Structures are given as structure tokens and as C-alpha cells.
């Protein structure tokens, strides 16, 4: 692709024309605590393009949020240390960017919504004020214009009576409405990329589905990149284009969602699928993955999943499985990955 000079002029410093929207490349993070060094991310890589939804899935403690916090530049440092890798936004390595540049990218380049909207929203300011403040400080809007835009945003996330609601405090909103307000706030600066960290966990099933639908609609409308973090494969089944499965700070499988649901390429993914409730098997007992994820202070030798894996062999206890490329865009870190998907 050729690039004209005027296109180059509009790029931010450090950005590379034609580069992917977001790439996490071989990221290593550790926490140095009094109990020892917890190697929390061990070579995490994924990428997201405009208009694409990547679901990041894994049990508690697998490193999903730490990856997101590192992307956003809000990792707790210390005790956290980034010991390797790059995070590229339009080709610009954010880990090398100045604090000022990172603040610019936060919110207007990449925005994030959190699991617990109540603690993410400030209880002493109205919902409207919290949206308007960003618009005034970051976009230089007048009070009047910022109020108008805040109402539009609340309207977009389908909050009824947005004109009246904009004057209310977070505690006056229901759980689902608060999560919608959080989404509106995250959209205020028109980000190109949105990270939603367990956005529906605190909500009941019906509201969960509504929020997922809303996120999907907004993403399509704005052609945003979306990272949906969850521990529940069921929640993302309808909305994810691709899925990255994390275990003990590694991506153990990465695949198009439809391929992964049809035939998982890693025993851990298989375990997650087996533990989903299924309408067609009503009354049968749910199979869960036995055991617990390892302590990151002391990860098992070889494949980190080996103490819990139903397919474990001797090699698994001594050799770390490499990433097997099963198909374009499909990776699995299991010694027996090819066997698992054979017969396709
Ligand atoms: N500030 C911190 N200090 C020390 N350890 C931390 C800190 N933040 C996270 N960790 C550790 O990093 C590991 C990964 O945590 P992370 O929050 O990314 O997990 P997660 O996959 O998001 O889990 P969950 O589904 O529970 O949200 C965990 O072992 C956690 O205890
Ligand atoms: S490498 Fe071995 S222990 Fe690890 S997931 Fe594959 S079969 Fe199981
Ligand atoms: Mg988390």
C-alpha cells in the first residue's frame, strides 16, 4: 500500500501507517512481593484489528486483567515489573512512550470499562458531570456542549430519559444502568479500541445479555476493536470473533471462535467447554476441571496445566510445550495439539 504525504502528516508520532490497531507482543510481567517473584505474564501475545472482538478467557488469576492494565498503562508498579515485550498501538510501542503520550492514548485511543461500575464511578459526582469533565478537559468543550454530548452518549447506551438521568448520582442507577453509564463514559473520547474487563459479572443473566448486545452494537457502529475479558465461555459465544485462552500467564490457545467451539485445540479449553451448562443435557452433572490453577510463585515444570490435565503424558512433566500453529491464526501450546484437532 502506498501512503501519501498528507496521510503521514496525520499520524501520531511513532505510529506506523498500515500497522495493526493493537498488538501485545511477547509480554512478560512479574510481581516482586515479600513471598517471592510471581511470574504473572510469560510471553503473552495477541492482536486486535478495527471492528474485531477478541475474547480473552481463563480462570481467576490467569493474567487477563494484568494484561489489560499493562495495555492501559495502569499496572501497579511496583510491585509489578514489565520484564519483556512490546505493546504496539498503530505500530507505536506504548511501553516506550512518554507519560504524556500514554495519557493521550488512554481514553481517546484505548478506553477500558471495569467489572464493578459502582466503584469505578465516583459516588460524589453526577453521572453527567463525570462524562462532561472528560469532554471539557480533554476536548476543550464548553459546559453546554459537554452536557449536550453527555445526554447523547447516555441515549446511545439506551438509558431511558437521558436528559433527566444525566443529573443523577451513580447510586440512583440500577446495576445494569450503571454499567451502561460506564460504557457511555468510556466512549466519550471516541476511542478506537475498548477493553471490557468482565463487564457483566456482577449482573443477572438477562441484563448480562443486554449489555453484551449493546457492546456489540456500539462496536459495529463505530468499527472499534473490542477486547472482552471473561471467565465464562458462554457469555462470549455470540459476540467473539476470536478467542485467546489464558492459563498461568500464558496464552494456551488462540483461534477463531467458531473453530474453538467446534473442536478445541487444547485440553484446558476442552475442560472449559465441558464445564458450560448445556440445555440439551438437562439434569446431567456438570463436568468441571479438577484441581486449581497453580501458584504463580511456583509453576509446575513442563506444561503448567499438567497436574490437572486428563491427557497428561511423561513429556508434559518435563518439556514446556511450544506454540503449535494449527492453521492460520490458530495456535495451541499443547504437545498433542495436532492430534486434538485431527479429523477436521
Ligand atoms: N498488585 C498486585 N500485586 C501482586 N500480585 C498481583 C497484583 N495484581 C495482580 N496480581 C497477581 O497477578 C495474577 C494475575 O492476576 P489478574 O488480576 O490478571 O487475574 P485475572 O485473570 O484477571 O483473574 P480474575 O478472573 O480473578 O479477574 C494473580 O496471581 C494476582 O494475584
Ligand atoms: S502438553 Fe500435556 S499436560 Fe499440557 S495440555 Fe497438552 S496433554 Fe495436557
Ligand atoms: Mg481480572
UniProtKB/TrEMBL annotation:
Entry keyword set: ATP-binding, Cell membrane, Membrane, Nucleotide-binding, Transport
Pfam families tied to this protein: ABC_tran, oligo_HPY
Gene3D superfamilies given in the database record: P-loop containing nucleotide triphosphate hydrolases
GO MF terms held by the record: ATP binding; ATP hydrolysis activity
Coiled-coil ranges per UniProt: none
Membrane topology: Peripheral membrane protein
Gene Ontology CC, one term: plasma membrane
Domain of life: Bacteria
Family per similarity comment: Belongs to the ABC transporter superfamily.
Subcellular location: Cell membrane
ABC transporter domain segment(s): 22-273
GO biological process: peptide transport
Record protein name field: ABC transporter ATP-binding protein
InterPro entries for the chain: AAA+_ATPase (IPR003593), ABC_Ni/Peptide_Import (IPR050388), ABC_transporter-like_ATP-bd (IPR003439), ABC_transporter-like_CS (IPR017871), Oligopep_ABC_C (IPR013563), P-loop_NTPase (IPR027417)
Species whose genome carries this gene: Actinokineospora globicatena
